[in-house]
Amino acid sequence: MDSSDVPGADEWPLPPSWMWICQECTELYKAMKHAPEVVNAAQEEGDPGVDYDPLDTVVSTQIRLARHIATQHASDVPAVDPSCERCTSDESRQMPAVLVLEHRARHVFAPPSIAGLL
């Protein structure tokens, strides 16, 4: 069983109030939530044959928000989630601390099915 099998695994959590107090968190969160629309609009308006890779935009906006939280709000990053395979993996214990914090920061703003991927 992985995080995608858990009920609610695809539901986006309501971000905590401390994120809305931080202007950069707010801007990064909004950019992340609008990224799929931006990619779709670029695909619709763009030239045929041009690769508008949604992963470049969608994933990178999540990474930027997670990095900001990990570096600027480390005390607000949740503890290891024992139900998250990524949090509890041996690989995570060998990663640089900032990457571990980035992963755990995703638990603040992303559904379990997404947080478990990065």
**Secondary-structure element series:** HHHHHHH
What is the mean pLDDT? 84
| Category from helices, strands and their pairing | mainly alpha
- The termini sit apart by 17 Å
What portion of the residues fall into strands of 2 or more residues? under 5%
The geometry reads as globular
Low-confidence stretches are none
Number of strands: 0
Main sheet record: none
Which percent range fits the helix content?
Answer: 55-70%
Number of helices: 7
CA radius of gyration: 15 Å
Tell me what the structure shows.
The protein has helices at 17-21, 23-45, 54-72, 85-88, 90-94, 97-109, 112-115. The chain is mostly helical. The radius of gyration is 15 Å and the shape is globular. Helices cover 62% and strands 0% of the residues.
In short:
The chain is mainly alpha-helical and 118 residues long. The protein is built from seven helices and no strands.
Features:
single chain; 118 residues
Q: In terms of topology, how is this protein built?
A:
Layout: H1 17-21, H2 23-45, H3 54-72, H4 85-88, H5 90-94, H6 97-109, H7 112-115
Helix pairs in contact: 2-3, 3-6
